[in-house]
Specification:
globular, five-stranded antiparallel beta sheet, 12 helices
């Protein structure tokens, strides 16, 4: 086992113990045979186990995790999945080596505060998608088109902005920028922090009943095409500019696994390719994400280069 791996596993033991003491759980599941790691690391010797960490309800990370898993497994790596419930915990785990790769991070804007805190212990392996955007959205039938109209239409939404996880960058930006910049707090709005799943449940119920609802969303995300929603204009730019989705690695991963790091840096998806991947994983194969990746690869066999074992 390499020195880097040994040091990271030592840090992992400390971090997991601390996490357990706080009553927080990292739900891990292995997708490979434990013996698959025998026979060398990325340069010819040692452990070949790579841990992917992501928040499963954030389906960009779920989709790209299983995409990486497919190719890593084919190349002889043992792949472990750490499903983590909070962005702050995920960046902490990545910085400490509890996980090796965060397969869909938003480090430029949405997760900038975490990069400020942990960036020295994280490697940016590259951007795979370059047009991600945070949004406020309403149903297509709702008679407003801009965030600056919300203050005059509080009753239309019962004063509620239906949000997602408290630790999400989108939640922080909503509270710290959008609400004060547009005077939504003074107008009487409340941000309801819940989860992505709970937000989507409320959105589905409202649109089925042709009711008005205001939600925090983002692009790319399958819900934008699954539900009849539209983005509200953001004339003040409070939600920030478009940003890239990145593969992030724990410090030292490109030295320990140079072939993997180089391969990851070659992955790039456009709107059509990404949308099809997420649709297959999340909507077409919700109980078997790996099968969704297989179906996507049948349609897009040449988009991701092969990883040599």
């Amino acid at each position: 086992m390499s020195t880097l791996r040994t040091n990271r596993r030592m840090r992992q033991g400390v971090a997991v113990a601390a996490t357990a003491a706080l009553g927080l759980t990292l739900a891990a599941c292995s997708d490979g045979d434990d013996t698959a790691g025998d026979g060398g690391d990325g340069d010819g010797g040692g452990d070949k186990t790579i841990t992917l960490g992501y928040i499963p309800s954030w389906t960009d990370g779920l989709s790209t995790a299983y995409l990486l898993d497919h190719f890593l497994d084919e190349a002889g790596y043992t792949v472990e999945h750490e499903e983590i419930s909070d962005a702050g915990l995920l960046y902490t785990a990545l910085s400490r080596g509890d996980v090796d790769i965060y397969p869909s991070a938003w480090p430029e804007v949405t997760h900038a505060k975490y990069m400020d805190q942990y960036g020295d212990q994280i490697e940016d392996l590259d951007t795979y998608y370059d047009n991600a955007k945070l949004t406020f959205a309403v149903p297509e039938y709702t008679d407003i088109d801009s965030i600056d109209e919300l203050a005059d239409n509080v009753d239309m939404f019962d004063g509620k902005i239906v949000g997602i996880e408290p630790g999400a960058g989108l939640t922080d930006i909503t509270k710290d920028a959008v609400i004060p910049d547009y005077g939504l707090d003074e107008a009487g709005y409340e941000l309801v922090e819940s989860s992505t799943t709970a937000m989507l449940t409320e959105l589905e119920k409202a649109t089925e009943n042709q009711e008005d609802i205001l939600v925090t969303l983002w692009r790319p995300f399958w819900a934008n095409s699954a539900y009849p929603v539209k983005d509200l204009e953001d004339p003040k730019g409070a939600l920030g500019e478009a940003e890239g989705l990145h593969f992030l690695g724990t410090e030292g991963i490109s030295e320990e696994y140079p072939d993997v790091a180089d391969w990851i840096g070659q992955i790039a998806l456009d709107d059509e390719q990404y949308g099809a991947l997420e649709d297959q994983v999340v909507n077409q194969h919700p109980d078997d994400p790996a099968a969704g990746v297989d179906a996507w690869l049948e349609e897009y066999p040449d988009v991701v280069p092969a990883l040599e074992g």
